[in-house]
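## Example record

The block below lists the input lines for one assembly entry, exactly as stored, with component labels intact.
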Amino acid sequence: MNSLYYQKKLSRNVGDKFFTSLSVFCALIAILPLIFVVTYILIKGGAQITPELFTLEPNPPGDDLDAGGINPALIGTLVITTIASIISIPVGVGGGIYLAEYSNGGPFSKFIRFGVNVLAGVPSIIAGVFIYALIVSTKILFGSMYSGLAGGMALSILMLPTVIKTTDEGLKLVPNELRYASLGIGASMYTTILKITLPTAFRSIATGVVLGIARAAGETAPLIFTALFSYYYIVGFEDLFYEMGSLAVLIYNFALEPYDAQNKLAWAASFILVISILTVNIFSRILAAFTEKTKRV
Amino acid sequence: MEEKLTLFKNRKRFGLEKNIDLIFKNTTLALSSLVAIVLFGIILVVFFQSFESFSRYGLNFLVTSEWNPVKDEYGAFTAIYGTLVTSLLSLLITIPLGVGTAIFITENFVPKFFREIVGSFVELLAAIPSVVLGLWAIFVMEPFFREFFVFLHKFFGWLPLFSSEPAGRNSLLAIIILVVMLLPIVTSIARDSLNQVPKKLRNASYGIGASRWKTIFSVILPAALSGIMAGVLLALGRAMGETMAVTMIIGNSNAFSWSLLSPGYTISSMLANQFGEADGSQVSSLFYAAFVLMILSLVVNIFAQWLVKKFSLKY
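Predicted structure tokens for the full assembly:
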């Protein structure tokens, strides 16, 4: 008779309770890092936010107490990620179009998809090493060594797999009926792709690309010996061929300085970087959830 | 897909339109080939740059730990050992933690709303740049763990792993920050593979009287194992290549030590530290180290992909 009721002390029930609490414990530990990191950045970085931060050059580390601002690094990050986007978006979207629209699952497309995954797994510092060997040490860019342009190229290698993958997957979700309809009214292949399939998949591709850009903006390893760092304002086009600062490298350099003023600047830069990256991520997450709900099947 | 292509091909069109179509197709073909070119370019360039060092030191480079630019003697054993130890130990901690979290997200212990919050928190953690985690590790995590390390050394100092006085920046801190970075990868991939296990497997297991955790351990985890393994391998590749946070917290010392409480080195932190100001044969030796790192991560990645391909169609 007793066996019909839930028995607390039965070994299977005790074991279940134990493992359930273990799993809850894991989940609690797992959410702690984000909470701690974001809280500290909000507190320590948020306290440093002043208007001058956005307009001044950083002072070289030393005895002077005022660290200055992060204007060159902020602009540098924008410039370098823009260069990376200009290179990787056309290449990635074009490559993705080939994989999704033209290839027919043959060995070549299999190989390229495999290559995309392998490239995505290449450590980011290797991208920096590669660009250093190819561009910085050979001075191939009109005699300039470390430059913002080289930094942008290194980042573009990291962005490329993301862009190709999102394009490929976004285009695969477009229903074939749309392609047939386009064919039916006499459109050619490239018209169909440019006017029908790409616009249909635009939102999912754009989301993936924006997330890729956000990730690239925080990458440091490929920049430390390609773009290096600079303390000076970016004033004109020719600055592309010289050392260029970025928020990520500023955080790296100034976190390791023994001076308090520079450390504070590193926190301020982290604040700006993390807030923008998290905003992009959360926004695209909401957008994706919204799209999912309104999707017509 | 094939049907679609032939439909387009059979149309009668003007020459100009046909040519534009062809040009467009070949442009996208060229762009997609660029991936392969870049990949081979990276491998070849790093290999040829390391050739000088390779021919001089050969495989001795991998087992000696002398790194002396003045005497022109190079060996990367400390860095290779550091790379393997930090990534493997961090993975050892991450696997139970990540899989446990993934089980929490996929089971119904708590309402869906809370599970989704946990899921997105873990995924957002992946978006935090590693250099920011490094900054956090230096100023927040290190002071937090300082007492704990002293305790570890005091009571477990007889173990070689904790045999040295805790240094301000050490390998154990690097392992902890790597756990933070790997957790989102392992969790999200484990969650996806657990979600893909068909519901009928669970129902069948419940039907023959298995308890919830008996079902998880004997049915669901084995079914999701290949996906989880692939995720673990991807995380391993990521851990070996991870640079910034590790460089900032590991202490960057080439002196070999068994103790995790003394400063260490990894290949990527060695590259980050020395590449900027290296010259002569040091550059070539750094390229050699980079080549070793690349081969390690390539092998791990390719194996992960093979695993996914081999086992993903089982259910």
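Chain B touches chain A through 97 residues (CB under 8 Å). Strands of chain B lie at 67-68, 73-74.
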